[in-house]
Specification:
single chain; 304 residues; alpha+beta; Jelly Rolls; nine-stranded antiparallel beta sheet; 37% helix
C-alpha cells in the first residue's frame, strides 16, 4: 500500500491532487491509526536525549512561540538519566511543548517512516515531533511553513485554526512586511484527535493549541522542488568554472567600462550555454535525487 493513500485516509488520490494539494487544508479523521507503529510515546526520553547529542536546536521547549531556556536546560538535565520517563518530562516541561526537530535522525522507526515517504513522494521529507502535556501552553504561535505539511496526530488532541495565505508560495521564513490573516475568519477550526491527519498547504497560517489531553504529533514536511532550486543548482555549477569566479574589470580603469560590459556579456553567454545543454535537466534531477537520497539514508541510531 502506498503511504500517501494512508495519509489521506484512503480518499480518492486523484481528487486530492487536483482539488486539495496546495489549494486548501484538509482533515482526515482516522488516517493516522496505521502510522502509530512508527513511534511509541515511551520513546520520547531517548529521542530527546539523542536530540541533545545532535546539538541545539534539535530539541526545543516552546511556549507561546518562544523557547523557554530554563525549561530547555531542565529537559537537557533530565534526559541524561537513563531511567527518565515521560512523566518526568511532563514535570520539567511544566506545561511547555517539547519539540524535536529532525526526529528521524534520532529514532529508527521515524527514519523508516521518512524513507517510506521519500519513496512515495520522490521529494525531500523532514519530520519534526511535538509533545504537549495536558492543559499546557501553546507551542509555536500563529505561523506558516515554507513547505506542505501533514500533521500526524498519534495521541491526544489539539485545537487547530487554519487561515488563508497572505503571500503566494512563500520561500523565506521572515515575517517582515507580511500581513497576518484575519483571525476571525479561519478556513478550518476544530479539534484534531489521536489517529487523525491534518494537511496544511505551504503558506497557510495555522495556530495549534493544547487541550486538556496530552498530545503527541508529527509534522511531515514535503519539500517539493521549485524553479529557484534550479537557479541555485545553476549557481553552484557555474561557480566551478574559473572564468565565472574571476573579477570583472573595474570601470574606473581606462577602457574598464567597455571591458566590464564585455565580461558581463561573456558570463551571460556561459550561463545560457549551460541552460541550453541537453543534459542540464537530467543533471539537475540526478543531483537532487542523490542529495535527497543521502539525506534520507544517512541516519545513525546510537541512542536507541
Amino acid at each position: 500500500m502506498n503511504i500517501i493513500d494512508e495519509l489521506i485516509g484512503h480518499s480518492d488520490r486523484e481528487r486530492f491532487w487536483q482539488q486539495t494539494w496546495t489549494h486548501k487544508p484538509a482533515h482526515f479523521p482516522g488516517a493516522a491509526v496505521g502510522l502509530r507503529q512508527y513511534l511509541d510515546r515511551d520513546d520520547l526520553p531517548a529521542i530527546a536525549a539523542a536530540g541533545f547529542e545532535e546539538g541545539f536546536p534539535r530539541v526545543m521547549v516552546d511556549e507561546h512561540g518562544r523557547m523557554h531556556h530554563g525549561k530547555f536546560q531542565a529537559v537537557a538535565d533530565a534526559v541524561k538519566e537513563p531511567e527518565t520517563t515521560v512523566s518526568d518530562l511532563i514535570d520539567v516541561c511544566d506545561g511547555a511543548t517539547l519539540v524535536v526537530n529532525g526526529v528521524a535522525r534520532m529514532h529508527e522507526g521515524i527514519a523508516k517512516l521518512q524513507r517510506a515517504l521519500f519513496t512515495a513522494f520522490e521529494e525531500h521529507i523532514t519530520i519534526n515531533g511535538y509533545y504537549s502535556p495536558p492543559s499546557g501552553t501553546a507551542g509555536l504561535g500563529l505561523h506558516f511553513d515554507r513547505w506542505d505539511i501533514f500533521a500526524v496526530h498519534l495521541r491526544g488532541a489539539k485545537r487547530w485554526r487554519i487561515y488563508p495565505p497572505t503571500q503566494v508560495d512563500p520561500v523565506q521564513a521572515t515575517f517582515k512586511e507580511k500581513p497576518t490573516p484575519d483571525e476571525d475568519e479561519p478556513l478550518f477550526e476544530g479539534i484534531v484527535r489521536g489517529g487523525d491527519v491534518m494537511y496544511i498547504p505551504r503558506g497557510f497560517w495555522h495556530l495549534v493549541e493544547p487541550t486538556d489531553e496530552e498530545c503527541l504529533h508529527l509534522t511531515l514536511g514535503v519539500h517539493v522542488k521549485k524553479g529557484i532550486d534550479v537557479a541555485q543548482w545553476l549557481f553552484n555549477e557555474t561557480s566551478k568554472a574559473d572564468s565565472m569566479r574571476r573579477n570583472m574589470p573595474l570601470t574606473c580603469f581606462p577602457g574598464g567600462a567597455k571591458q566590464q560590459l564585455d565580461a558581463v556579456a561573456e558570463a551571460v553567454e556561459e550561463v545560457r550555454a549551460m541552460i541550453n545543454d541537453d543534459a542540464a535537466v537530467k543533471n539537475f534531477l540526478r543531483y537532487r535525487f542523490m542529495h535527497e537520497h543521502e539525506l534520507t539514508w544517512s541516519f545513525k541510531f546510537s541512542a536507541l
